[in-house]
Amino acid sequence: MTICVFPGTFNPIHIAHLKMAQFVLENYGFEKVVFIPSYIPPHKQVESNLAKHRFNMVKLAIENNPKFEISDIEYQSEGKSYTLITVKKIKEIYNIKDRLNFIIGTDAFKNIKTWYKVDELKDLVHFIVFPRGEDIINPENYIGYDYELVNCEKLDISSTDLRKKQKEETIKEVREYIFENKLYN
Asked: Total structural domains in the chain?
C-alpha cells in the first residue's frame, strides 16, 4: 500500500488540511493519507487538555473519506510527539522500505533544522511541501533533504484565526464539536 502521512497539531483541523490531503491523493497516486495528530507538539504551545479533542476533531473531519485514515500513534506515548520516532513506527507498521511520504507546509518546513534528530529524519522522509503565507524555501538551505515544493494554489488558512472566530473554513462537524465542547472560548 502506498501511503502519505500528514502529521500536525490540527488545532483545529480545517478545510485546507483536507484539500492538501486530497491533492496528494489525486496527484501522487497514494492509496491512503494517514493523519497523525500530535499529542504534545514540541515546537508549539498547545493546551494539553485539548489533545483528545484535537484527535476527535480530525476523526470527525475525515470520517466520510475512505482514503483518509487517522493514527493514534502519538497518543500511545502520551508525551512529546517527536517526528523521528513516529516516522520509524509508521514505517514499521506499514512495512515501508523506502522513504515515507510526508505532507508539510512551508511554515513548518522552514524550521525543519530545529527538529529532533533531523539528520536522521531527513534520510527517512520525502517531504511534500505546500506553500503557506509568504514563506519562501531557499533550496540552498535544504541540501540533503528529499523534498519537493507543490505547485498549487496557496491554501492560507490559519488554525489560530479559526480558534479566535469560527469561519467557513472550519469543517461543519468540527465547528459543531467545538461548540458542543465549549472549546477555544
From this structure: 1
